[in-house]
Amino acid sequence: MQKLFIRRLILGVLLFTLVIPSGERFAWAQDKDKNKDKQTPQAQTTPGFSISVTVPVVSLDVVVTDNNGNYLTDLKKENFRVNEDGAVQSITNFAPSEAPITIVLLLEFSKLGYEYFTYNAVNWAAGFLGNLKPNDWVALETFNMRSNVDVDFTHNRDEILHGLSTLYFPPFSESNLFDAVSDVLDRIKDAKGKKAVLVLASGIDTFSRINLDQTLKRIRETDATIFTVGVGERVFMAQQPGAFGEQLIYVQAQNQLRTFAAMTGGRSWFPRFDGEIPSIMQDVAASLRNQYSLAYSPSNETLDGKYRKIKVELVAPDGGPLTVLNQKGKKVKFQVYARQGYTAPRSSATGN
To answer: Residue 245: which domain range?
Structure first.
């Protein structure tokens, strides 16, 4: 039996040698060696772990206005300089942004301020809708003790108007602003293109699960632009002089709204009269439609999860300060709006 097996083995080798030409046998041997080489790195890899590395690209939406509120729309790539933690970055992508708007109207809907805050928020939000274009996306959310999605994203402004018309009687006196801002940023974090949140609120937070520092941390992670409109200015200004506690609440509320906007490259307003609202809402829409989109790959490639500060400056072609002239040839000051930083990703090692 063993002799028969040996004879068959020898016969098989002879047939292989006779049937397959020497050139093909050589190629076959090379393929085996290549496959062996391909398997070598896997054998050297530590079993049970794989490393995931993400090379970040930082995108910025930048708006530039002069001291009269006019938008500077003819700037070139070479007019912008981006600094990250003090180091100049190389801008890889640049274009005026023309993408449709994706925006959430986030309204305070509470009994605070004798429901005056809610009254202003609802009526002023309606004034924004006329600035939308047919391909823009808009959603309506409200908050008191908890956040609520009243109308999900839609192209139809009438749906938002109907949602606003149902906001009559706030159920609670709480105004959990921090929770609401964090919740809405989580909802839109995966939305593509240009996205923004328009917050119409007093700026007061009464009972949120998270604190201000946690809210600011969440804002540092977003690429959305936050615009804020204070709805309690007339109530705050009507306070009796010397009411230190109430004045402190008012100042803190204003500062919180300003900070949310400034960190993301947005703007904030604190109107006292209804007549100011049309121009404010036009400014919100105009800011989104007159953005420059910039992108760069950070020179600091460390994936440490730390916050990096960003500063966007305007420069002349020779690298010096940019001079902007008005129609009369006089120098004008300008303001650059861009988010103040971002949180770098972390490298991760995950088990198989």
So the answer is: 101-289
